[in-house]
Amino acid sequence: MSRLLVSNGLLLDPVTQSVETRDIYIADGSIIAIGHKPDGFIAEQTIDASGLIVSPGLVDLCARLREPGLEFKADISSETVAAASAGITTLCCPPDTDPVIDEPSVVELIHRKAATAAHANVLALGALTDGLEGQRLSEMAALHAAGCVGVSNCRNPVANTLILRRAYAYAANCDMTVFIEPDEHWLSAGGCAHDGPVATRLGLQGIAVSAETVAISRALELILETGVKAHFGRLSSAHGVELIERAKQQGMDITADVSAHQLFLNEMDINSFNSMCHVLPPLRSQRDMEALRQGVRDGVIDAICSDHQPHEPDAKQAPFASTQPGISAMETLLPLTLRLVHEQLIPTYTALSLLTTQPAAILGINTGVLAENRPADICIYDPDQDWQLDTASMLSRGRNTPFAGWSFQGKVRYTLIGGKLVHASA
Amino acid sequence: MVNKASRRTNPLIGNDSWNIQLDSKGRLKHLLTIEGLGSEILTSILDTAESFANVNQQRVKKVPLLRGKTIVNLFFEASTRTRTTFELAAKRLSADILNVNISTSATSKGESLLDTLQNLQAMLCDMFIVRHSDSGAAHFIAGNVAPHISVINAGDGRHAHPTQALLDMFTIRRNKGHDFGRLRVAIVGDLLHSRVARSQIHALNILNTGEVRVIAPKTLIPTDIEDMGVNVFNDLESGIRDADVIITLRLQKERMQGALLPSEHEYYSLYGLTAERLCAARDDAIIMHPGPINRGVEIESRVADGARSVILDQVTYGISVRMAVMSMVLGREPEAADAEAHA
Predict the structure, then answer these.
(1) Is A307 a catalytic residue?
(2) Which of A196, A226, B14, B118 is deepest in the core (most CB within 10 A)?
(3) The whole model's pTM is what?
(4) What is the pLDDT of residues B93-122, one digit of tens each?
(5) What is the CATH number of domain A57-363?
């Protein structure tokens, strides 16, 4: 029996919205008691969390680990170590790997590699259509049995709306949540920046907001008809937030997330052809960014994810449109979200709820809370520590971030997964 | 909102894209875009070009200003006019010039743009003149070459074509005088895909042009182009009314494929510059075109070859303007940092 005590930490419970100094008693991977010492408990290891905040481990709804298929960029081992250092205990990888996650063997490979690396729980989404090609249904029941927590077609198009409707219906039949990255392919193809004044000035091909909103509108109608459980990921526009808000008000059971970088950057940041800001969906206007922030504040947006996409240096070394989109973002997920607290947009417990309890609920997993008999997936951070992001000290293999040199407050000190200490820093 | 103080942009691209073209003394080190340049720099380029225009009239059209300098014409996209006028300009300044045409197929063999650059840089040259199909390519190259090398943008994607805009300003100045404030300039055609138009708009506004208009069907007008300081017209006749200068842009035939336009014929019927339509403009209006022209698509032959057309003058002035830019960029006293890089 491995027994561990986290003592004197300031427990922050996003569910009860309480903050109290309490001890956590852990045995065999689970939290067995909070606040009161169980009879006969003798800790083999004690973590002194005085002055630190103890939170559920972070649950990241979208992180690409590049394995299988793109191991020259990163792999499950490198990225889960980075996740642990960032307080992320569970992450969900989308199915656009190579080979695509459209059959159980790929899911098994990912689970096996993650278990060997043993630094984060890695969940997989299965492909909605075979090979993500938008033509035939994937074997969703088999993917479900293999442990996929949902299905997605990522940003790959399903051109035929009838196929999309059937895919949603079949997903509902398999009790699988559909994870939608809203993008109308024909409106975004070839684009690399928000269709606005900056793209016009720089001569970059724009992606109109309608690429997102047409896709959301089409999906909403099909969700309504098929009754599938759906999650919208990586919103980028004010109008997109509005559509989600309206659908929720009408009683639809849907959820949504935004990537952390969309809350801090906008089209102005690509001004110098800064390829680190080349992301999809693109960084939109200041007004869109403000609306996303309001969506986070008002609860229209249920989770903040990293949308982690590590790249090798060469991927960003070319003229803007020819660079590969994406940010290596796990290590800035908590720091950026805490910045929303410092900027007084949301209170700390809301910030942590957006990173833990709510994404866990979207995935239907039993972590994301600090409670007895739940897995001891815990993130312990120093809320006062000031630091600056130095890309050289990043643990992800990808150092592609536009946040290099940014100052942050709050740094992860310990991360536990299933009661095991997987990260500790001074 | 965003803490600018805590930001550091990508060091490979430079901390301020518009100022990477100026050296520490505010002199032109690269010419990548017109945007962000002051009217003094623009005017001094035009004045210098004026003096070279006289050289070009002499029997011996050569000056020894850039003797010993090596210039590479690095063209990733086909070009005749721009490449040859740069070549001629370099030769008249007594520089050595090397033409390197890199078809897209060569780079698709796997060599990255950066690799290509490093190879050419190893040949010890002083200046790259770059044309590339990607917007931002010239900025990328300027941010990645050795510090003693200057880069001149000869057209990048839809972004910029600064020497073309400068020679257009030179042409306007020669015909209409130095006071741009009195002028109404109309640019007609495919604004969406035009790097020439973007650079012209910046230049015209920096020189305080009275009014800059753009005229095109809604499918060829870029989103929020008004933010660049232009008035948008979708109708040719009202757009050119009382204009002093009309610049027509080339319409590429592939625009019919992306459903931007139904046919060349319909485009000509709505936006073709004909002698008849020209009556709406001022009597002394001049007609310009960056070339190559499509007769019967964007312009009627009678107009292109008519008395008000200055299209061939533009080509001639292109040599003087490019001589001016090259001599100003390469003729600078070396900076301390440059000297170190050489050592």
Answers:
(1) yes
(2) A196
(3) 0.93
(4) 999 999 887 765 455 555 778 888 888 888
(5) 3.20.20.140
